Amino acid sequence: MPTNTLLPTLETPPYRLTGTVYGALMNHRPALYALGEAVDQVPYKAAPKAPVLFVKPRNTLAGDGQAVAVPDEPGQVEVSAQLGIVIGRQCTRVSPEVALAHVAGYLVVNDISLPHSQFYRPSVRLKARDGFCPLGARVVPADQVAQPDALEVRVLIDGQLVQVSNTGDRFRGVAQLIADVSAFMTLMPGDILTLGGSQGAPLARAGQTVSIEIDGIGHLSTPLIREQAAAA
Fold first, then answer.
1. What is the CATH number of the domain that holds 46?
2. What SS3 class is residue 157?
3. Residue 59 falls within a domain, yes or no?
4. Do residues 157 and 209 touch, judged by C-beta distance below 8 A?
5. Cα first-last separation, the chain
6. Domain annotation covers residue 119
7. How far is residue 147's CA from residue 150's CA, in Å, rounded to a whole number?
């Protein structure tokens, strides 16, 4: 994992974050329903039967308070507030009944993307730019989070509340998502799997500060700056 004092470390021994972040798409029921009849047309052709995942590589990781650059074109980014599930024990084909026993803890994740209307094979160019995955500064141990599928999530831009959602109303809650993902790939200790964002992710532009709050989990602040200013 890159050397960056702003990035969190896992405080529940013996694991640290691996730097691998997997995200779930179209896991929020309203997000899938918003596609309407388009979900049965090209390129989707049908509603997903298995988790739809994307990967945030290490170059995307940023810490709480670390500035993230916004390209001049299109000049704004999409902000998706997400619950990060930190894996504590290797997960390979685990059942939903035991899946939560493989969770070390939870943290706040900001899945930043360039605006896009399709969720089919999400473009690396849109989602994997430098700094496009800020992480909260603290991992809350799993035994301190009684109901991970019932947490209020708030997004504020320059201190103004722009979105309120909940980790509930998912096709797959935390345990089911872990079980379904581990059915075809192994999740390793220190990996992060996000529950997926909610419908209506807000847009933000350079010069603004995005704040994400998840009840019982913490707060994550991300100042946005112009890409040219970042390169200067």
1. 3.90.850.10
2. strand
3. yes
4. yes
5. 25
6. yes
7. 6
Distance from C-alpha of 38 to C-alpha of 104, rounded to nearest angstrom: 38
Task: Please check whether residue 102 lies inside any domain of the structure.
Answer: yes
| Domain assignment of residue 134, yes or no | yes
For the record, the structure tokens of 23 come out as 């995200």
Conformation bin of residue 42: beta by default, left when phi > 0, alpha when psi is -120 to 50: beta
* Domains identified in the chain, total number: 1
Secondary structure (3-state) at 106: strand
**110/64 Cα distance (integer angstroms):** 10
Nearest one of 147, 71, 72, 54 to 109, comparing CA atoms:
54
Phi, psi of 181, rounded to the nearest 5 degrees = -70, -40
* Residue 41, Cβ density class (10 Å: 0-12 exposed, 13-18 middle, ≥19 buried): exposed
What range defines the domain where residue 108 resides? 21-231
Tens of pLDDT along the chain (232 residues) come to 444 445 666 555 555 788 899 999 889 876 665 555 554 544 445 555 667 889 999 999 999 999 999 999 889 999 999 999 999 999 999 999 999 999 999 999 999 999 866 555 557 788 899 999 999 999 999 999 999 999 999 999 999 999 999 999 899 999 999 999 999 999 999 999 999 999 889 999 999 999 999 999 999 999 999 997 555 5
**Which residue's structure tokens are 């997400």?**
82
